[in-house]
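Dear Dr. H.,

I hope your travels went smoothly. While you were away I took the liberty of generating a structure for the chain from your last submission, since the lab meeting agenda had it listed for discussion. I wanted you to have the full record in hand beforehand rather than looking at slides cold. The sequence, exactly as received, is reproduced here:
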Amino acid sequence: MNKKNQTVGGISGIIEASLYIFGIILLFSSLHPAIDQAQTAAEKLQFIIENKAKYQLWMLLIYVIFGIVLIPLTIAIHEIFENNSTLFSKAMPVFGFIWSGLVIASGMIAVVGINAVGETYNTDPNSAITSWKTIETIQNGLGGGVEIIGGIWVLLISIMGLTQSIFNKGLNYLGLIVGSAGILTIIPALTDLGVVFGLTQIFWFLWIGIAMIKNGKT
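The corresponding predicted structure, in token form, is as follows:
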């Protein structure tokens, strides 16, 4: 296990948690109307276009940058289990990399999509609204609504952590909750668990980040 990689992985975990926190602050301080269910589709889209720079920054941070930083974290976590030949340990980084790719793609679709929709909105609002609904559906399908891939990744880490006595038990039990919440978002009636997945993952990322930084020092 490379100590420097563990430190980098730990810092990555803390960055992930920080991105979540900053994203939540930006959302509820400046972008809340973009997700307000009381607004019509036209009102939401108009608000997003008027606040395009903030919206694109938000998407870049919580999706694109998040996905990029997830890669070194996935590698560093895998190093802890790399001597284990079980199927779980081999599948673990695969789900981490897939999740990274999905969230990066999800964010880029939204960032580029709002530019195209914004150009159409002034001349043909109805077509722009239809196009934006399509873009949102694709974006949510990749990584904005269903969190099954991220959930499986966290769940595998937590199960392996418990069976091999790696990481604090409390961290692993928290990971079981985080992972299960993410996986259950695949059920249409339980998509609201995505909020639970996101909020609890803040603490999971912070905790695992600190644990890995300690690994890098010992």
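Two observations you may find useful: The mean pLDDT is 90. The first helix runs from residue 3 to 31.

With kind regards,
E. W.
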